[in-house]
Amino acid sequence: MLSHKTQGPDYAADGEPQASLQSVERAITVLKILARTGGAGVSEVAEEMGVHRSTISRLLRVLEARGMAQQNSGRGKYQLGLGILQLANSIPVRLNLVREARPVLEALAAQTGETVNLAVLSSNYVVNVDEVMGPSTLATQDWIGRLTPIHATSSGKVFLAAMDAAERSRVLGETGMPPTTPRTITSRQDLEAQLVEVAEAGYATVYGELELGLNGIATPVFGHSGTVLGAISVSGPEFRFDPRKSRTLVRELKHSAREVSRRMGHAEA
Questions:
Q1: Do residues 79 and 70 make contact, with C-beta atoms less than 8 angstroms apart?
Q2: Domain spanning 18-85: CATH 1.10.10.10
Q3: Which of 22, 53, 129, 173 lies most in the core, judged by the most C-beta atoms within 10 Å?
Q4: Between 217 and 15, the higher pLDDT residue
């Protein structure tokens, strides 16, 4: 008499079901796509991953239920949820950085009237981990959790200027220097020349390089060992915000960064 065995799931070498591992890998890929694009629809994600639309829809619903993704009702697209930021903030150094910087960011936004961001470097990209809107802010763009290109942001230039030549070559070699606007610097030689100025001046600027009509300025935040932990930036619309024309702005920004650095244990020489 023949016995019939119920077909069970396939297992990986470590004993985990293959289907479970595949779901985890797909969920992580979905989150990375949302981070890179700033927001995407079910069809867009499904097409990029080469997976059926219904599969992606189920994954996004689960991620949304866990707070890892949220749907923009206005556009019908998904973006990263606040749960991602909560996970990132569980990393002790970044948690401390956000906590210590918050009152300083609020004071700087009140002084300048513009949007102030705190950014860190993550996988060769710049990610804003906190943001304070100034009283003059017109737009409601939320940059928290969104990955932005390192060569096209003022904070990114701060990070690049702090790297040695080998590390900078590695990062730019991996990310490339694609244009996000007609003003984006795509020449390595031009960027290197600007980074020398950034290192000397202690701050970096952008003029419509990430978004047309948006200018920004950033300066580094140091940790106790003297390494760059993050960057504080101030941004605003070009019709009223030109960092080069305000020495007061540069002074206030540097003062704020020094205060956060001090709170993080950095002692100036």
A1: yes
A2: yes
A3: 129
A4: 217
